[in-house]
Specification:
By secondary structure, the protein is an all-alpha fold. Helix content is about 60%, strand content about 0%.
């Protein structure tokens, strides 16, 4: 075994993983949660709610541990490929041509994202949810740091699904890396708690996944939010959700799916804030009489 090469591979993947996790997360935290905290109604998806410091520290610690562990796995896989171990990766576009390289990268993204949808939905069944996925849902007001703050087995499960295709079909590493970085970026944005809109028509706004943390067993898609439309798990108006209301217990047939257009999202966010203000105003007379 070439230990020097292994250390180099680990340094690249661990260093890269922690960088793409911490730098964007810190930037979002500083730009919004530090600089614009007093104007939360203008940008925050849950302007009436802020995560306690205990959970903020916990998500950063857990996210760092998980990102390090996942990066170590990637580093070992990188070493495996570098030393001639089996995979279906090819490094010369000319081997298969541009049409196949682009098409296979798109297929890698679409099929992989569908697999992640079903894995995520499976984790919301009673057994898997209570065993592991509940860890991630402790963070009901997520930030970008929440993206990989989960049970380690959950992170490794998603990683295995994402990387399995490189052993099944020929793929160019450039396409694989581009897809994984894109999915990671979407995950950071989706957990940011900031009122970001849709970058692409298949990619839901940040509010889509934020609702997943607020209402639990809805909106499972990782990147392509159309999966929830197709399989009936899109959040629906007037339907009551909660941590104990699992997909298999819900009655969804007669309910209309909610709009995630920018105006509709903003209206719902401000309605949350107004409801909290109303509760506070009603409480004031009681406080005075006390």
């Amino acid at each position: 075994m070439d230990y020097l090469l292994l250390l180099e591979c680990l340094a690249i993947t661990v260093g890269g993983g922690l960088t793409v996790y911490w730098l964007p997360s810190l930037a979002l935290d500083w730009l919004y949660y530090k600089q614009r905290a007093e104007h939360a109604a203008d940008w925050k998806l849950q302007p009436d709610r802020w995560a306690p410091k205990r959970l903020l520290k916990e998500e950063r610690k857990l996210g760092t541990i998980n990102m390090t562990a996942a990066s170590v796995v990637s580093g070992i896989l990188f070493y495996h490929v570098q030393t001639g171990g089996f995979s279906m990766l090819y490094f010369e576009v000319a081997d298969y041509g541009w049409a196949y390289t682009i098409g296979s990268s798109i297929a890698f993204f679409v099929v992989g994202d569908l697999g992640l949808y079903w894995a995520h939905r499976w984790m919301h069944r009673k057994g898997p949810y209570r065993f592991m996925h509940r860890v991630h849902h402790r963070f009901r007001t997520p930030s970008a740091f929440t993206a990989v703050a989960a049970h380690p087995f959950e992170i490794l499960t998603f990683q295995a699904i994402a990387l399995a295709p490189i052993f099944i079909i020929p793929l160019h590493p450039g396409g694989v890396i581009a897809v994984l970085l894109y999915q990671h970026s979407v995950s950071l944005i989706d957990h940011s708690g900031v009122r970001f809109g849709m970058l692409f028509p298949w990619q839901g706004p940040a509010a889509f996944h934020d609702d997943h943390h607020v209402y639990f067993h809805v909106n499972f898609a990782q990147t392509i939010h159309w999966w929830d439309r197709m399989f009936g798990t899109w959040r629906r108006g007037e339907l009551s959700y909660g941590e104990g209301s699992f997909v298999e217990d819900q009655q969804r047939e007669s309910k209309l799916p909610l709009s995630y257009g920018q105006a509709a999202v903003e209206e719902r966010c401000l309605a949350r804030l107004e409801k909290k203000r109303s509760r506070r105003s009603l409480a004031k007379p009681e406080e005075l009489s006390a």
